Amino acid sequence: MIDRRKNSPAVSGTSGLFQLLRDGQPRTRTELADLLGVARSTVALRVQALMDVGLVAPVDDAASTGGRPSSRFALRTQTKVVLGVDIGASHLRVGLTDLSGARLRDASRELQVSEGPEMVLDTVAELGKELLQRAGRSAQDVLAIGVGVPGPVEHLTGRPINPPIMPGWHGFDVPGYLQGHFAAPVLVDNDVNVMSVGERAAAWPGVQDLIFAKVATGIGAGIICNGELLRGADGVAGDLGHIRVPHGADLLCRCGNHGCLEAVASGPAVAQKLRELGRDAADSLDVVALVQQGDREAVQVVRQAGRDVGEVLSACLSMLNPAVIVIGGSMALTGEHFIAGVREVVYSRTMPLATQQLQIVQSASGLDAGMVGASMLAIQHALSPESIDRMLAGAVAKA
Amino acid sequence: MIDRRKNSPAVSGTSGLFQLLRDGQPRTRTELADLLGVARSTVALRVQALMDVGLVAPVDDAASTGGRPSSRFALRTQTKVVLGVDIGASHLRVGLTDLSGARLRDASRELQVSEGPEMVLDTVAELGKELLQRAGRSAQDVLAIGVGVPGPVEHLTGRPINPPIMPGWHGFDVPGYLQGHFAAPVLVDNDVNVMSVGERAAAWPGVQDLIFAKVATGIGAGIICNGELLRGADGVAGDLGHIRVPHGADLLCRCGNHGCLEAVASGPAVAQKLRELGRDAADSLDVVALVQQGDREAVQVVRQAGRDVGEVLSACLSMLNPAVIVIGGSMALTGEHFIAGVREVVYSRTMPLATQQLQIVQSASGLDAGMVGASMLAIQHALSPESIDRMLAGAVAKA
Lengths: 399, 399
Prior knowledge:
2 copies of one chain form a homodimer. The first copy, chain A, has 14 helices and 15 strands. Chain A has helices at about 15-20, 30-35, 40-50, 115-135, 175-180, 190-205, 260-265, 265-275, 285-290, 295-320, 335-350, 350-355, 370-380, 385-399, and strands spanning about 25-30, 55-60, 70-75, 80-85, 90-100, 105-110, 140-150, 155, 160, 185-190, 210-215, 220-225, 230, 325-330, 360. The first copy, chain A, has a 5-stranded mixed sheet. In chain A, strands 13-12-11-14-15 form a 5-stranded mixed sheet, sandwiched between helices. In chain A, strand 12 and strand 13 (about 230) form a beta hairpin. Chain A is globular. Mean pLDDT of chain A is about 90; it is low at about 1-10. Chains A and B meet through helix 2, strand 12 and helix 10 of A and helix 2, strand 12 and helix 10 of B.
């Protein structure tokens, strides 16, 4: 009934000890025994099991008395690595970090996601292996891989679900395919969720409630509540782009409804308005350029787009009461004009209690947010109790 | 450095064993030792510690072979109790339940919350003691008290913060005052949060993402995401009532803004519209009565209020992608007309992926939701690892 191997002393209880060491503080076996309420001999076995898989090591103890060898142990973040992969509509970024999140190497490539999953994921594998080689690591050192893609993903399987700008990816087994190259768990999520995790890790590590709104070709948000990414019942939480804004009623959105935020405030919608005003604006980067040149009508149109986004964000605020709203995506590159529009509406529309400590800011991690977030998802998974149990059970089975 | 008392074998590790037993399944000491990866003698000490405080007991084991005494142990839900307190604008309900949530006794009283905190909380204490006596329990059996109040609450301290309909309650130490009567932790939260916990416990125990919208004198929501109550950075998440609805622009809300949902769809707003149509409608109960009599204009006005609530809920849906939306509060008592208005707008406004499995339903726990939810908050707290550690440390200190 009970699997004796899984529950051998080297496995069961060991991940509890490991979670204690995740704070990075070195501890003696006796301290660990006290904290866990188990015998010192049991702790010794568990520490050994974690040393065997390379996750824990003795630390140099300068304060050690009488020249005895060090007897304190700590998490070893540098022996193992993760890959963070950011797949965009037309780019690919891959980062190699250790378990503390420190970046060892990274690389990027211009690549259309519409080339299809095999082509794109083969390039991911190629870049990943190149980074490992440059860092003097092997594929066996990779504990997990995090991947962000520009479309909805079924959380449990890591398969994209009807992603509008990713032809050929619907239902594709992204984890399975990458596991043909690396024997490690693969976590896949949509790009905005991944970016919100990256932005929080990079700029707001202590914040428990954060909304990351990406305003670009599409408009979407990654929502972190109680410190956790919120995915919703079907994995489609954060779909800001198709919330109705009051004065957009006559505009048809690509979703088939009228008055969606995306139809009035996305990069293409703003570029369209500027073309109607006689400007040469094909996409959001042209919009950014016009604003940076000080074109007054471009500034006005961008500020109005900010107000429209603010209208929807003020509803989000009333509902979720976040501490921080981060604005990312190409429209955020227009700088203060866009954010000023957001702030103008948010502060006039929302009850004071929900905004007294609120910060509305431009994305700090910029183009790296996706890659950093994908690495964080991979690290969180790699150090979870379930993963540690699996590693230890594997080591026991081999022994 | 390490508190030896807190980490004595009877305390540390014991709450881990307790969490294993929370599923209610009886287990032998040997099974527990295997599951926890500790020695059988250690498990014996921990089981004894939990028996000493009355949380665990041996169970009759019909399948036991050879007439040996039972050696299986299980959580004992009936030895200890919690109080669940629902304080409304003009009523008070107190329930006594065991640790499984089974109700032992309850009582209610007509009482204005505006009488002030001492008056109301003295009545709570009086009713609580009466229930304990009727159930043959003592105040020492109360492990925790949950309290819902009709206003915003600072989560960490349990103090109401500028509650508009609770004069005299601002900053009042509700937990401290009740602890003058019962030596137990007191959890205070706003009524809608508490009701959402109650509704989930009563009708949707497996659901991880649920919104409970209360539409009455005010309009607010309790939001459960990833299985947890979402309070937000300042504790004011779920403030649906002051989100703007498109066609309410000319209506002044009591918050000072125009076009808030509360100004067009709350009980008083609907009663006002019916008075303008010549009906005798002082409050939402009159509205309910008119609808139940089949008054066609009342039905129309109520259905439109449902549409307005649906407009705001469709934004919530796009953002949070819940599995269930529960409509409660007095306006929900108008039945299908109101909910039909909600559904009409939600299904026309929201992307199909977010609504394919969605259920929009009337509150099932009705008037009891607050009391049930307050009891659940108390039980969750009482059985948390921190509470169990504290109980065990207390028992060790006394011994």
